[in-house]
Amino acid sequence: MPSPKEIVQFFEESWYKKSGLVTVELIALVTLATLLVQANAHILVWALLTPSVLLCIYLFWGYTTRPPIVPKDKVGFLVCITCTDEAELRKIEEDFIDPLRKLVKSGVAGNTFYFLQMPQHFAMQVVDADSASEMRMRCRAHFMIYGRVKKRIINGKETHIVELEGAVAHQPISKKVQDSLVSEFTELLPRNVHISTENDLFSFQFTSEWAEVVARYIIGIAAACSGDLKYAESLYRDVLLRLNNKEHSFPVYRKLKERVPNRLAEIYEARATDCHNKWSETHNPAYLLEVDNWLNKIEPQCQDRGVAITLCAITKFLIARSPDESIKLLKKLKHEDGRIWQCNMAFLYAYKGNLKQAARHYRRASICNFELDNLYQIEEFICWMLEQEPSKYELYFCLGFVNWLIKEDMVLALEYFTKFIELCESQHYVQEQKLIGEWMNEILNKKQPGELMGSASQ
Fold first, then answer.
1. Is 389 helix (H, G, I), strand (E, B) or coil?
2. Alpha carbon 333 to chain centroid distance?
3. What's the CA angle centered on 73, arms 240 and 260, to 5 degrees?
């Protein structure tokens, strides 16, 4: 016959398992049957009480064994760490988990976090990536650190072995971005740390700070991927503040110090792109100033990024009508040599009156693949510029070239080339007028675009 202490210990260990539920229901059935037999109960009482008691036990078991849930308006930070014994667990809670909790809740974005330490009976259910993902979703957590801490003798010294992994929630993203997120998490998180028991307090606190800084950085990436740029920016700013007082000789802190400015640059580029798109729809000059403001936030060491340079070149031209400055900026990206780059360069050269260079860039652009939306945007922009500056008849040359070699719309190509010649004075662009006459004759003779390329290269 088991002692009361053994019975209590059994239920403490087994209540959260299905075996505990089955045991309690069997005990309840035996007890209920004994009472009903003693009371000489009617069969109808048996039929009513038995399923009712079992259902109540099942509902109570389900309620008491469900994991805690993160409130809807919070970002859940879930910690599932198992330990080999109770004393070790208390030490980990005091020296690692509690400091981590305080760090996560501090800072600019701290009040948005809900820190959740999973009880051991739940933490023990997390044994791999799949079970971790399932537990994270059950708790509605956004970020999760899971693993175990065990004590071993290494080189004759008692040592804590900390094995940690992580999981992050995010909106659906591309496989490439997802792989990058997992790769950074794996690289930066303290996954396998050996801590001597002789100096474990300091070492656990250091590991807590390490995990917390990496957590904010990874959650920032996930937030940015999910479209929450404002929250992502606040997290990155928090990381930078924390890194100011850290020892930068530590490899992880050094990598974060290098990467966070680039992550912030991605956010500012996205903001600037959004403002530029709004300008494209409305042509409201206020949006151009916003583009400029966002780009100015990018740190100097990150200003050589392709998107930032392209947006800067476009914005400077639209604000100051300075093609030379924009061309100088775009030349920094010559190695990209893409279709949009070629068309931007062609337009700027045409605007400043260098049609020979414009034609050269359009010819190179014509051998690139274009999406239909790109073509419409290019043509719409040039037409809008002509509305703003009708005297820039050189832009009809651009429209003729775009429709001839890129869109292959020969009717519009003839119309725009004709308009250019009508507006062009006889002493201006003499060579270009001659070439256009040859191209128009070949178009009228229904030659193929491939044949026309030969004439264009003369």
1. coil
2. 25
3. 15
Q: What's the CA gap between 349 and 343, in Å, rounded?
A: 10
Query: pLDDT for 126-174, tens place per residue?
Result: 888 889 888 988 888 887 888 888 877 777 777 777 788 877 776 665 6
Question: DSSP readout, 304-335?
Answer: T-HHHHHHHHHHHHHHH--HHHHHHHHGGGTT
Q: Which two tokens stand for residue 224?
A: 């940015």
State the residue for tokens 């409305």. 282
What's the CA dihedral at 93, 94, 100, 105 to 10 degrees? 110
Q: Please name the residue that has the structure tokens 């260098």.
A: 354
Instruction: Quote the tokens at residue 365.
Output: 């652009």
Q: In what order do the strands lie in the sheet with 113-117?
A: 113-117, 75-83, 143-154, 157-168, 192-196
β-strand partners of 177 = none
Burial of residue 240 (number of CB atoms within 10 Å: 0-12, 13-18, 19+): middle
Select from 110, 284, 287 the least CA-distant residue to 212: 110
